[in-house]
Each structure stands twice: as C-alpha cells, then as structure tokens.
Design brief:
The complex is a heterodimer. By secondary structure, chain A is an alpha+beta fold. Chain A folds into two domains: 16-127, no CATH class; 144-241, no CATH class. Chain A contains five helices and twelve strands. Chain A starts with 15 loop residues before the first strand and ends in a 19-residue tail after the last helix. Chain B is built from five helices and eleven strands; from the N terminus they run H-E-E-E-E-E-E-E-E-H-E-H-H-E-H-E. Chain B has a four-stranded antiparallel beta sheet. Classes of the chains: A alpha+beta, B alpha+beta. At the A-B interface, strand 11, helix 3 and helix 4 of A face helix 1, strand 1, strand 2, strand 4 and strand 5 of B.
Chain lengths: 260, 150
C-alpha cells in the first residue's frame, strides 16, 4: 500500500504524524495539544490496504515516539516501554506535521494502540483514543543530509524546527526536519529563500558572502527588518529561479516590488 | 558512539554559525489547537479587513512557466490536532502583535466546507469566518501562546 498526500477530493489521504514532547526536556513550550483520535477498527497482520489508509487519515494519527535518558544515554520506546537501540529510534523517526509515505508490511494492535510495520523497516505506533501523551526524540540530534536542492546540499536538524534556517555555503542549507520535502508554502518558500542565499554566494563568492552578506543578514534579523537588502535579494533570486511560483509565502518572505 | 560525537560536533558548528550569522531566524511559539469536530483554516492579520486573505488551499499551483506542483495548505488545522505557526524573525510573534494597530492581532477561523465552497472575495465580502478573535501580546503570553478553537 502506498500512502500519499490527500488531494482536494479526498481520493487519497494525508497522514500527519505529531512528534510530541516529553516535558522533561523542553523545546520551547510543546506540552499539551489536541486529543487522540479514535480507533474504529481492529486488525492483526495482513493489513487491508484501503482500511489502513482510511484508518490513518480518519484517526488523526499520533506517533508515540521515544524518550531519551541523558544520564544513561538510553532510549525507551513510549509505546512498548522497552529499551530501544539508536538505530531503531533513527529508523522510526518521524517529524511533526510531516507526511509519511510508505508501504505497510503488517499491522498489530493491542490495548495501547496499533503498530504498523512498514516495508522500509520503520515502525509506526498509533495511540488508542484519548491516550495522548508523547515525547520528542531528543536523542537524535543529528544533522542529516537529505539531498540536494538543485546544486545545494541540504541538511535537516531539529534546532531549526521552529521554521528558521541558515545557508552556509559551500557546505549547504540547514533547515528543520521535514522541510526539504515539505509541500507547505512556508517551508517551500523557506527553501527557495535559502537557495537565494546560495545563489548570492555563487555570484559574489566566499569572501563577499561571509564578510558582507552574512553580517548584514544577521543585522537585518536582529533589527527585524524583513525588507533588508540581503533578504529581499535572496527572496528575489529564489523566487525568480523557481519561475515565480504562485505558492510563494509573501507575508513571510517579501519581494522587491519589481520581482526582478 | 563515534557517529553521535560527529553529529554533536556538527551541531555545535551549526549553532555557532547561527549565533554568528543567523540568516533566517523564526518563531513558532504561536500554537493553534483545533478541538472542534471539523477541519478549520486560520488567518491572522493586523486588522479585520481580510484584505490579504490567502489560505493556500491544498491543490496544484502554477509558476510563470506553467509548471504546477502540489501544495498542502499550512493554514489548515485538522480536527483534534494543532499546529505551531512559524513567523520570521527573532521573537517574531511578540513583535508582530506589538507592531499591529493598538498592539492587537486579529485571528480568523473558517470551516473547511466554507473554504472549499467560496472564493476568497466571497468569504471576505460576506464575512464568512466562523470566529474572529483579537489578541494582544500580553493575552497570548498569558495563554502560553496557545489559541484553542472553538
């Protein structure tokens, strides 16, 4: 079964997995949140593709996640209660508000919820209704290379999950988890804007970028000037490179009036 | 373990780089929780006019070359879920609200069915929002930057 983004006609579905927070290690305030969705059907092994799809969408899925003990360096599965290896945590890591695409290998259900074993080896745990407590996977703070955005390498790191980003050429572009492949306007525009910084570097060179553009960019960030020349220039470069997409998030990433 | 150490080094480099060259900081403190039984769209602005209303409905969007790509609305909050809203800049939400007229931010909610059925112009003209809330920065701070619908 292939999970994919839901279209307007609801022919398919989208599945949001919320990466929930353990209050013991706070990343800002992430406690609380909405209630869990219901589990309307049961199943064990040999998932029927269509009901799994419907189930995931309709139940407003939650990813249970892992907790990390900083003193012992061990991970514990919040679903199973058992110790988990780093590789298991890494493989099962799913970002907040992201879409997940994968094929279901099998399904198992118990009183805590439902476990989906995916064909890519990852496991997705869905909570039973109302049992909404989660955790952030703080133990996997790696800068993960996720691919190239045109010619710029892109790395994802959770410290940028607040929507921030940085471009450090020639190394690459750093964004939050899930941003690189996101279909949401803010994230896509952020990628385009950062690539605009990358294009500044390619045109102006290392010295100019790090002695003029980067300090000016910091100055504009501190002074809250989203119309600073480095930012407008980066947005315009990205916007034009992407052929002026209609989804560009203008309120957050304004452009020069002439867009050229 | 070596892998984790190298990641830590990498992280430190990035954090220092951010401190030195924070190109694009953002603030996603504002959380909207949808506790209703319907999917909702939200829109925020500094006034009640809805002049710049754009909810980025999910669907295909074109660029100037005619190429289209699928966009998933980031103004949509599904029933029983929540969303943290990013805003560019350091401490961006506090500054955004304080910079609004009288220091008040207007937050509008629209049901999914309305957004699907009507154009932005119709929504604007007929004021088809489900709720209109006005917040100061102090009020939001008091609510832990969380807005709950309904």
């Amino acid at each position: 079964m292939l999970m994919k983004a839901r279209d307007e006609s609801d022919a398919a579905f989208d599945a949001y997995f919320y990466w929930l927070c353990d209050g013991s290690m706070s990343f800002g305030n992430m406690a609380g949140g909405g209630g869990g969705g219901g589990i309307g059907r049961s199943g064990s092994g040999g998932a029927n593709e269509s009901w799994v799809a419907e189930y995931l969408y309709e139940s407003d899925v939650r990813f249970y996640g892992y907790s990390y003990n900083w003193s012992t360096g061990q991970y514990t599965g919040r679903y199973t209660g058992n110790l988990a290896s780093y590789d298991e945590v890494y493989n099962n890591y799913i970002v907040p508000n992201s879409e997940y695409s994968g094929e279901v290998q099998s399904v198992d259900k118990n009183d805590k919820g439902t476990e989906f074993l995916m064909k890519d080896g990852s496991t997705i745990f869905l909570l039973a209704a109302g049992a909404y407590h989660g955790t952030v996977n703080f133990g996997i703070e790696e800068g993960k290379y996720v691919g190239k955005y045109y010619d710029a390498p892109v790395y994802e790191l959770s410290i940028f999950n607040d929507g921030s980003a940085i471009t450090t050429p020639p190394d690459g572009i750093w964004v939050g988890i899930g941003v690189y492949k996101s279909s949401e306007p803010y994230n896509r525009t952020l990628m385009g804007h950062e690539y605009g910084h990358w294009l500044q570097y390619e045109e102006k060179g290392f010295g100019y970028y790090y002695t003029v553009i980067a300090p000016a960019s910091l100055y504009f960030a501190i002074t809250r000037n989203s119309f600073g020349w480095t930012e407008l220039d980066a947005s315009n470069r990205g916007y034009n490179f992407l052929n002026q997409p209609a989804w560009w998030d203008l309120p957050n990433f304004p452009l020069h009036k002439l867009h050229k | 373990m070596n892998q984790k150490i190298s990641f830590l080094k990498l992280e430190i480099i990035v954090i220092i780089s951010c401190l030195l060259y924070s190109c694009d900081p953002a603030d996603n403190r504002l959380r909207i929780v949808n506790q209703s039984n319907t999917d909702i769209y939200f829109f925020y602005s500094c006034d009640s006019a809805l002049n710049d209303l754009n909810l980025f409905r999910s669907g295909y969007y074109q660029n100037s070359k005619g190429d289209s790509s699928y966009i998933l609305s980031d103004h949509l909050i599904k029933k029983g879920s929540f969303r943290n809203i990013p805003n560019r800049g350091f401490n961006a939400w506090t500054n955004y609200v304080k910079d609004c007229n009288e220091g008040k931010m207007h937050l509008f909610f629209f049901t999914d069915s309305i957004v699907r059925k009507y154009s932005y112009d119709e929504i604007k003209a007929k004021k088809l929002f489900e709720r209109h809330l006005i917040y100061t920065a102090d009020k939001l701070k008091k609510n832990n930057w969380t807005v709950t619908y309904p």
